[in-house]
Structure formats: structure tokens, C-alpha cells
Amino acid sequence: xxxxxxxxxxxxxSGKAEVIRVxxxxxxxAEFHFLHGPARSMRxxxxxxxxxxxxxxxxxxxxxxxxxxxxxxATRFATFRVLDTQGEPILRCSAKRxxxxxxxxxxxxVAPKVLRFNDPQTEERLRLLYRGGFTEFFMExxxxxxxxxxxxADLTRHHVVPKRHKKNVPQPWRSCLSNVLFVCGACHRRYxxxxxxxxxxxxEWRTYVxxxxxxxxxxxxxxxxxxxxxxxSVQNFDAVDAPDG
Length: 245
Description:
Layout: E1 8-13, E2 16-26, E3 29-36, H1 39-44, E4 46-50, E5 60-61, E6 79-83, E7 89-94, H2 95-104, E8 107-111, E9 114-117, H3 120-129, H4 136-139, E10 155-159, H5 163-166, E11 180-184, H6 185-192, H7 205-220
Parallel strand pairs: 6-9
Antiparallel strand pairs: 1-2, 1-5, 2-3, 3-4, 6-7, 8-9, 10-11
């Protein structure tokens, strides 16, 4: 892609979108003016990028509008519906997880954004971990709105048990968590402004993570949490480190 003078381009940087208007392209460089972005970019006002690196730097065409805040927040990747070996829908997964299933040969794509397991062992492993409880939560789209207020713009990935504290959950139980909910920037700032809960690290791991869940609910009173969600997702703890097969 070659940048064009007068055209608008956008990219996401750490949850905040940058929007630019290209003002000149000469001698292998594209110069631009910031229309929207983090404080650092707006203070700079202008910038430049090598023409050959423009697309690789993440710039993509965008439309002009009065407010670009709808572009802020986490990138919302496509989700995939996953069918069992019999063709029945059982869950929805991220694009990253879908790529893993495809790369390993555990599933094949039978329609756009629809996978079907062709490895019964993978399906049986999931059924064992969740006791076959593929509830409505498994089919929910989880990255389309703020879990607190329902806003659909400026979404960020919120870790219910913060990353810096997740190490207090021992393995293999750490992998049992459904730890990410999407919240908008305003709700996330409100949450970050609240005092952290006094949760003893010595608490049993389920008590520990549910204390963080309860803190999230107490601060934000979320009304749009995906149906069936809980911070502890696995139901069959005996099967967590059981050998496959």
C-alpha cells in the first residue's frame, strides 16, 4: 500500500487509536499530521514514516468523521464457531485459538469462521474438563461490548485477576480461569481508581480468584457480563492434569 497525500489512515497503539492525514510523500518518506491519538502523539502534532514501511507499521485507510474515539480500545478479532465431530455447535473461540486448532490438525474450516473438530480426542478432552457443560456462555460473543455499561467502543481487555497477581494462582489451576472480560475505557478507569481488595495470598486459590471477581462486581456493577460466565471456568478439576487419552 502506497500512502496518498490528503488521505486518512489509522492504527491502534496500546489500546488508543492513532489517526493521521498524510500531508506529503517525497524522497521515500510519508509525512503526516495527527488528527487523533494518545497525548504523546497529539503533543508531537506531526510525524513521518518511510514509505516502504507504511503498511508494515500498521497504517490502514479510514474514513473521515468528527470523532474517532470509536476506533480506540483493544482490537476486536473475529471469533469462530466450533462444531463437534457430529456437526453440532459447542463453543466459540478466538482467532488465535482457531489458528491453533487448524495448525495442529484438530479441526478444519467448513465455512467462513466455522470450524469442525476432526479429532475426537480434542473434543472428548474438552467434554471431560467441562463435564459436557457447553452452556450458552461457550457460544457467546465476548468481545463486542463493555461488560459493565454495554458500550461498544473504546473496549479494553480487563483481567479480573490482575496480571501482576495471577502468579498467586498456582499451576495447573491458573489455566482453569476465564479471566478476561471486555470493558470500555471509562469503566476501566473507574475500576482502576478503586482501592484493591485486601485478599490474603494464603487463601485457597478458588477463594482468592472469586474475591477478585466479587471486587469487580462491587466496583462496576456489570450488567452485560456474558451469560453463564464465572472466573473459574473448568468444572472437572480432577481432569485438569490428567494425562491426555
